[in-house]
Design goal:
The protein is 50% helix and 10% strand. By secondary structure, it is α+β, with helices and mostly antiparallel strands. The protein has 24 helices and 21 strands. The strands form seven sheets. Strands 1-3-2-4-5 form a five-stranded mixed sheet, with helices on both faces. A four-stranded mixed sheet has the order 19-18-20-21, with helices on both faces. Strands 8-9-12 form a three-stranded antiparallel sheet.
Length: 661
């Protein structure tokens, strides 16, 4: 019986959760496949992630069970993969799972031949069903081996032929095409509750960014109305942590009441950014509060000692989902006293029946109290009491892409709201990633406790980090960030390029799987290709590089036709298309040393997607400021679109007028 398995030396917190299993786990490696060939047994591939509720359930029911472990150890080589550490493996075998079952999810459970070809796949299996499956597969492997191998070959061949969306016209979307995309979103919009589609509802961050940019360009009130309805509903629902800030992964219902309680770095970075853009555009008091509280959550609960940001907080606490976060009226009374407890129950929609499970409720905020001080007092007292409860576990690996998203959000929001500590946190994170995750000029995917992981960076790591560094560059006017971003983008173009002008999700020298992953659709995070396109466009606007702009145009054009017809899955690509159509707007402020009335106005009121740099004239390493002098000895702002500039202005009123044109 195995007491401590090979996962004890893993860097992934998800894998480490399984180090004491009696299952003789292997990490994904050539050695694991060689062992399967030596023993002539099939491979069990189990893929999940640390904050996954049903992954924990299957682990407790099956992987911690001695009988299940005996069956696995005798008849299989068992491989455990953290999907967040190896998204390429996850993508390939998720294709097999959805092809075989019609749906996907985690934990993902695949059975493979010794060369990695999948012949059976599913997701969560209860213990008894799992045991029956393992027994049947073991018998079939020995008694009908030819059929198993043939099935694996057929499925592997189908995966390798998986079609990339038809490239169509290969033309950039213009105003008419973007109108079509927005109209499609109107048809899928939930006008009553906000968001798109029905339950479960996920935060549509990338789509909202597209709609904000569209409204900024066209003045379309419908686009802004969809954004505001959705952001307002999410911020008032149970998916938002009304006490500690930050958002849970998704809502299990269409009304945003009951969340799936895991809190992911990527969701909160993306939502921090879009709420900051909403505030910048409208001055919404709610938006500002959510920005401040979500930034506080990131810095308080997800920041690591090395300066990066942890991946997630678990959905479960002590094996119970939502234990930390749900409340009953009696629990409110216990903390606040009967009078204030009743006020809190009314304010946060905590009922005797409960909105969650076992009579408990998630906290919502359907309406703001007449006195904001009442809300703040209740929040502080309840949060202090909640902090004494058992807390969810933290997946403290640092993922390059998601930390890039956090850098961008904190830098932009910190500059807009005058919070230099947020900008410093973004800078510290950038220092960690460039100092630890960049190995021999190539990005790695993760680190933990300051030690870099072995997995290569994928496309989204390059795009999201470059985008974050360019946001930090604009806020600090430090050219080292744009230089590093340019180097990362050149690696992306040199090693991830596809023949049609698009991009693959893995490098040309990465480990070869059944196929080379290439998914242009947004999921929980922007697609790798759209994140690179966004960074390419920002870099070209900051430096004047036509080559990088051309590359951004090619990446967008490859998927333009399908993006216009399926906008819910291409929000970030469409946001980049809006930026291409708008110029994008470039604002160069000279003579204020990075801080002053013109700079603050430019940062506060710049359109989404615009680039802003403020420093002294002709500062080295800042091409946007080249040959843009002071005007009459005074500070000046230059507003340009696609490198075509208006006359410089010297007052904030004139700058705001130029930005509105």
């Amino acid at each position: 019986m195995v007491t401590v398995n090979r996962l004890a030396s893993a860097t992934s917190p998800y894998l480490l959760q399984h180090r004491d299993n009696p299952v003789d786990w292997w990490e994904w490696s050539d050695e694991a496949f060689a062992e399967a060939r030596r023993r002539d047994v099939p491979i069990l591939l189990s893929v999940g992630y640390a904050a996954c509720h049903w992954c924990h359930v299957m682990a407790h029911e099956s992987f911690e069970d001695d009988l299940v472990a005996d069956v696995l150890n005798e008849n299989f080589v068992s491989i455990k993969v953290d999907r967040e550490e190896r998204p390429d493996i996850d993508a390939v075998y998720m294709d097999a799972t959805t092809a075989l079952t019609g749906q996907g999810g985690w934990p993902m459970t695949c059975l493979l031949t010794t060369d990695g070809s999948p012949f059976y796949a599913g997701t969560y299996f209860p213990r008894e069903q799992f045991l029956r499956l393992l027994g049947a597969v073991a018998r079939t492997w020995h008694e009908q081996r030819g059929e198993v191998d043939a099935a694996g070959e057929r499925i592997a061949a189908a995966i390798s032929r998986a079609a990339f969306p038809d490239t169509g016209s290969m033309a950039l979307p213009g105003p008419a095409e973007l109108d079509t995309a927005a109209a499609a979103l109107v048809g899928q919009f939930d006008a009553e509750h906000g968001g798109f589609g029905g339950a479960p509802k996920f935060p549509p961050s990338m789509v909202l960014e597209f709609l904000l940019r569209r409204h900024e360009r066209t003045g379309d009130p419908t686009s802004l109305a969809m954004v505001e309805k959705t952001l307002d509903a999410m911020a008032r629902g149970g998916m938002y942590d009304q006490l500690g800030g930050g958002f849970a992964r998704y809502s299990v219902d269409a009304e945003w009441v009951v969340p799936h309680f895991e809190k992911m770095l990527y969701d909160n970075a993306l939502l921090l950014r879009v709420y900051a853009h909403w505030w910048r555009l409208t001055g919404s008091v709610l938006a500002e509060r959510v920005v401040r509280e979500t930034a506080a959550f990131l810095l308080r609960d997800l920041r690591t000692p090395e300066g990066g940001f942890a991946s997630a907080l678990d959905a479960d606490t002590d094996g119970v989902e939502g234990l930390t976060y749900a409340w009953t009226p009696a629990q409110l009374d216990e903390v606040l006293g009967p009078q204030d407890g009743a006020v809190a129950a009314s304010l946060f929609a905590v009922t005797d029946v409960g909105t969650f499970e076992h009579g408990a409720s998630t906290l919502q905020l359907p309406v703001d109290p007449s006195d904001p001080a009442v809300l703040e007092d209740l929040r502080v007292r309840l949060f202090a009491a909640r902090s004494l409860r058992p807390q969810p576990g933290r997946d403290d690996k640092v993922v390059t892409a998601w930390n890039g998203l956090a850098i961008a959000a904190l830098a932009e929001a910190g500059a807009a709201l005058g919070e230099p500590s947020w900008v410093r946190a973004a800078r510290d994170c950038a220092e960690l990633l460039l100092g630890t995750h960049l190995v021999n000029r190539r990005l790695r995917r993760t680190s933990r406790d300051g030690a870099v992981g072995a997995a290569d960076g994928v496309l989204e790591d390059h795009g999201d980090l470059a985008d974050g560094l360019l946001a930090l560059h604009q806020v600090t006017a430090d050219p080292r960030w744009s230089t590093a971003a340019g180097d990362i983008l050149n690696v992306a173009l040199g090693h991830f390029g596809a023949e049609d002008g698009g991009l693959y999700d893995t490098a040309d020298d990465a480990e070869q799987l059944l196929r080379r992953p290439r998914d242009p659709t947004d999921n929980a995070t922007p697609a790798g290709s759209s994140s690179v396109a966004a960074a390419l466009l920002a870099y070209s606007a900051l430096t004047g590089s036509g080559m990088h702009r051309g590359a951004a145009e090619s990446v967008v054009a490859v998927v333009a036709d399908v993006a216009v017809t399926q906008p819910r899955f291409f929000g970030w690509t469409l946001a980049v298309a809006e930026g291409l159509l708008a110029g994008p707007v470039q604002v160069a402020v000279v003579g204020e040393g990075g801080d002053g009335a013109l700079t603050r106005a430019a940062v506060r009121h710049r359109p989404p997607g615009a680039v802003v740099v403020s420093a002294e004239p002709d500062t080295a390493g800042l091409p946007l400021l080249a040959d843009r002098p002071l005007v009459g000895g005074s500070a000046a702002a230059y507003v340009c679109r696609g490198m075509v500039c208006d006359l410089p202005v010297t007052t904030t009123d004139d700058l705001l007028a130029a930005l509105r044109r």
